[in-house]
Structures are given as structure tokens and as C-alpha cells.
Amino acid sequence: MKRATSKDVAKLAGVSQTTVSFVINNTPGVSLSEETRRKVLDAAKQLQYIPNSFAKGLKTSQSKLLGVFLPTMNNPYYPMLMQYIEKYTAKLGYNVILCCTYRNSEREKAYLDLCEEKRVDGIIYLFTPNWIKRVIQLSHTIPVVLLSEKSDEVPLNTISLNGFQCGQLVARHLLELGHRKIAYLLSSVTSVSLTRAKRLEGVRNAIRDANLPPETLRVLTAPQGDSGQSEAEAGYSMMDQLLKEGEITAVIGVNDLVAFGALSRVLNSADKKVPQDISICGFDNIYLASMAHPRITTVSYCTEALCKLAVDMVLKVSEDTDVLKLASEPQLIIRESTGPAPRGDIQALAEE
Amino acid sequence: MKRATSKDVAKLAGVSQTTVSFVINNTPGVSLSEETRRKVLDAAKQLQYIPNSFAKGLKTSQSKLLGVFLPTMNNPYYPMLMQYIEKYTAKLGYNVILCCTYRNSEREKAYLDLCEEKRVDGIIYLFTPNWIKRVIQLSHTIPVVLLSEKSDEVPLNTISLNGFQCGQLVARHLLELGHRKIAYLLSSVTSVSLTRAKRLEGVRNAIRDANLPPETLRVLTAPQGDSGQSEAEAGYSMMDQLLKEGEITAVIGVNDLVAFGALSRVLNSADKKVPQDISICGFDNIYLASMAHPRITTVSYCTEALCKLAVDMVLKVSEDTDVLKLASEPQLIIRESTGPAPRGDIQALAEE
DNA sequence: AAAGATCGTTAATACGATTTAATTAACAAT
DNA sequence: ATTGTTAATTAAATCGTATTAACGATCTTT
Question: How many angstroms away from the CA of B349 is the closest CA of chain A?
Fold first, then answer.
């Protein structure tokens, strides 16, 4: 069963194909009689006419398609962003193509090729590209926006999540609560993550600013992979080790998933309580953080607004030759998983 | 900066455009000298030639695009399926368009329109469509596969998750453990869900089969919405009520998210333990179920295999004219959140 | 040596829309 | 009556590819 074309509609309505196009697209600057307009619309409905986006794209070179790159769906953070982006683009008449790279360069490259072939109208990266060179080159042809961390060497439009400041926020929060023995739980991923680096930097900076020795922070690394489950498991096992040693009073997970895993481990222990004995916090404000009991203190970035901004930026065909770099204003969300350092440590603090 | 076309490549390589097409597509049935092949490839690389998928699609009426419909990203179950689908389609050279309906008929309709315009090569539904009529009509033009529950009235290719059998599985498991006071936690969503209905049906059936009275099962409903957080909250608040009443020994969440919320509530209580006092289980086997402590007993459907199957079906790897209906063989995954009914109830059982 | 058969290549056309420039009709102004 | 102006419509030229049928050249076959 073949679909009706604009030619068919024209024939049925008794007008030219041009007129059909004018009516369908409501082309600005042309005047049409109400009668022809109605005739065309009637014919189109009768034939169930649906414009062929191939032909349309061929002329206009617009695909109304957006490519969204993310490393994985296993951390709910990414589906959350994806959903915000999708919700907004749908309103604007665009579709999003899901490009899940699994932090694999080959896949990433393959997706970039596909996006180029499909002539997507823009690309949004939710992490730092592996193929920076390729992406930069591509950005001359297709608008690209990064929604992650900005890097001075990368001339790409960027909305920074401001990992450094995020790190500072949680660290200061813990320091103000009197914590002086803090662990930073890092689950390693298969590729470099600028975000993770920046967060840790921010934490270290806050400690230095408070005139505290670097030993205040203990950085642990678990070798686990990228799946949400294994990130939580990484947090669990690292916390396991920390409990055995029994020194730490506060824990920062590199993201909420790791923090959640750590929290689970403490909940599972007989003697230790959160936050009375150990405080726990993370980053990203995924819903899991507020579903846990106690709810996890974390950092939020007005994610929905940022996603909308990213879409606006990427669709802005304005010939802004300048590279735009923005930074989010992260917000600390204090919940029940963090509290004052245990008494023993408070005293230690007083002795200083 | 305009992109090179096949004509440009032809000119540079000193051959006809036809030849370029033959080389690029490796068109079967035509023989080409190694030399021309190389010349074309060199020219293509030099000009960074990328075929225009608009023109290509116009001729072939293939978009290499798949539309995937899901209600929300808030339940990790859907991103999980999405990821499996995306992973597999990418391998086949297809892209997926994310169509998130939020269980809103208007949105669903808008997305169907968009998919038709974009001439997607197939549509996969991860839930039961609201606009069944429209989808059925569409399926005459575009292959459609449902990956949810099969319904006898709906002539669409379907891979059934077999909710009925899933319900039976968990119910039998609990009954075998001696539970005779079971609660079924239902968080209501904004549209009818066949899956939810079938699961409950299966549970009831198992109870009947065991010659137990219908009162064995108590069905609770919470009015919460669709977000993952609120589904968990729904589970939390329903369990809150159950704890007050103190009758129930086992709980079935309508999905793992609800079960997780219920588990959180028990963990938060001083006196009750899981599974010693209360058993909890759910459906879907999302990673959250195995991240909780205790890990949650649930039902799995070999999700990845089913997703691949759905893709194969929709791409008509097998040429079938008949409507195909398959059912998954669900698998009960017994973990630490379920155990024998408390002693008091075992005795009650013995008295029967 | 004539007639096929095979190989490598190409000219021409079609796909279904948008868009430019041209055309007609109607009407006002001189 | 002629010209100019505006409104409503259309013919024709693209856009970049896949595909069909045809072509000359070379090689077989008899």
C-alpha cells in the first residue's frame, strides 16, 4: 500500500503541487484563498497524506533529529537527563536519537558517523567525548553542545556541571559538621572522566582552604565497571573495608550510586548508624538518593533547566562564531544521611 | 561549508556517479575493476564524502530508524530495555528514536505522527498502546512489535512478558514458604496497564489453586504517580500502613520499585526484619532489586534476549505475514528478601 | 571470421518534496 | 484605454542518491 504524495493531494484538490506545499507548511509570505486552503486540507486528510521527510530533508537539509550521546543507561542520572531532553525537544518538534557509547571509542565513532549520515541537526554530549578531535571537526558542520565539564583546551560549546564547585560544596558541608576523617569513594570507569577528576579536585581544594592536612581525605578506588549495579557494589565493598578499619566518619561517593552502595553496607552492619556514626553523601541527585532511608545528601544542578538550555543552544542556528561556555550553579541538598561528626572526633577537633 | 556529494567524488575520481554508488554500496551483482574501486575510495576519503541519507532514503524508502515507545524513564526497567535494544540495533546499523509518552495519549499520538513522517523502519512498544486503533492501522504500513502483554483482541505481533505466569510464580513461592497473609501493593498509574492486571490475576489464580480463600490476599492501592521516586514512596507508605496493622507476613510489589519502597520502610522500623518477619518480592529484576540489602526476590524475563527478538521481529529478519505471538518463560529469582513465614503463622498453617 | 557472452562502465530517470520566478486575474489609478 | 499594483496560483528547477537499460570492449566459441 503506497502512501499518498503531495502530487496526489494536488490532483485530488484540483490545484498545483506548489499550492499543496504552501498550505501544508503554512509558508509565510504567501497568501492563499480560504477556499483552496480548505480544499487542500480536505484532500490531504482524505488521502491520509503524510509529508515524506526524506524529500523534505533533501531540500531543506533539516532532519529535525538530535543526537544525544551518553556513556551508559545504568546510572539513572543519564536516563534522567535523557528524559528531560526528550521532553523538551518533542515540544519543539524534534526527535532524539539515543547514542549509548558504553565508553567505547569504537562505538562512539560509529555513532558519530551515523549522526553525520542522518544529518542530525545537532549533537548533545552528556559526558566528555573520547574522540575530541573528531567532535571538534564535526562541530564545524553540526552544532555540538557538551553538558558535562568544560575544558580550556576544547573549543566546544559547553555547559559545565561545575564539578569543582560541587566537590567544594560537599567537602565544606562535611568539614563544617566537624568531620576530619573523610573517605572519597572512586569507582573506576573504563575511560577518563573529567567530571570525576574535577569533583575530587574540588574536595581537595576545600580541605586545603580549611588549613587541614591532605591526610584528612582518604581516596579509595574500586576496580568495578560501568553498570549501575557494579557501581553500587563498588561502593558497598569499599565501605566494607572502611568499616573494618573503623577510622572514617564521613564518606563521599563519586556519585549517588556509589554513595547508595556505601549506605547499604552501613545499614547492613549491626553497630554503625547513618548519620550518627558515619555520614554519607554523593553527587547528581538521582531519585535513588531520595528513595534511600536515610535519604542521601547530594549535589544537584537544576538538571532540567540545563537540559533545556543545552537543547536551545544546539538548535540555535545563529552564527555565533564564539564558543559559549556556561557553568551551572550547583546546589547542595542536605538530607538525613549527613550529620555532625561523632563526639570523639568533635573533641579531637576542639583540641586543635 | 558544503558537503561533498557523490557527483563530486565521481568527478575527482574520473568516473561516473553511478560507479561511485556501486563502490560505496558494494552493490551485489556488479563487477568493478580493483583500480576504479580504489580510485573512488581514495576520492571519497579525500573529500570526506558521507552519503546523504535523505537522498538515499528517498530512493530506497528505508530510514534505518526505529521508534521505541515507552511510558517513562523513571522506572529503571525501561532504560534497561532501551539499552538492550539500542545495543543490538546499533550493531545492525540502525538508530533508535526515543519516544517517551509519559502515558499521555496526546504525546503518544504526536510521536506516532513523527515516526510516520520520519518513515521509521519499525516501531517497538514496551507497553500496551493507548491508541490501539491507530497503532493497528499503522501496522499495515510500518512493522510494529509489542513487548509487553498479549491481548487476544489486538492483532499485533507481540512478545508477551507473561504477567500471569509471573504472578503465579511469586505467589506459589510465598505460599510454599508458608505465608497465608499476603499483601499486593499496587501503585496506580495514569493509564490502564495490562501488565499490572495480569500479574495480579496470576497471583489470585495461584491462591485459588492452593485451595486458599481469596482473603489470603489483600490488595492495597496507593494514588501516586508515575515517577520512580513516587512509586517507591507509594510502596513505602503502603508498607507503613501494613506495619501498623501488623497482620501481613509477605508482600508482593507490583514491580521492583514498589517492592524497594516497601523494603525501605521495614528496614527503617526498629522491630521488624526482612525476611524473618516479613518477606518482600517484586517483578522485573531491575538492578535496584539486587542492590538493596537484603536483595529482593523477583521475576526476570531474560530481558536482553527478548529485546533482541523484538528487534529481529520488527526488522522482519524472518518474513512472516501472520501475526506472531510469543511468550517469555519468566524465571523466579529467589534472593534474601523472602523466607519462611514466621513461626506463629506456621502453626496456624498446621492447624488447618 | 561471425556471433555470442562477459566485463566494466555510464547516461538517464525517478524518488517527493521546496522554492524561485513567472503567470494570470482582478482591480485601482492615471 | 492604458498602466500599475496586488493577490492567487503555478511551471519548472532543484536537492543527492539508487537503479535500469544500454553501451563499447574484450574474450569465447563455433
Answer: 31
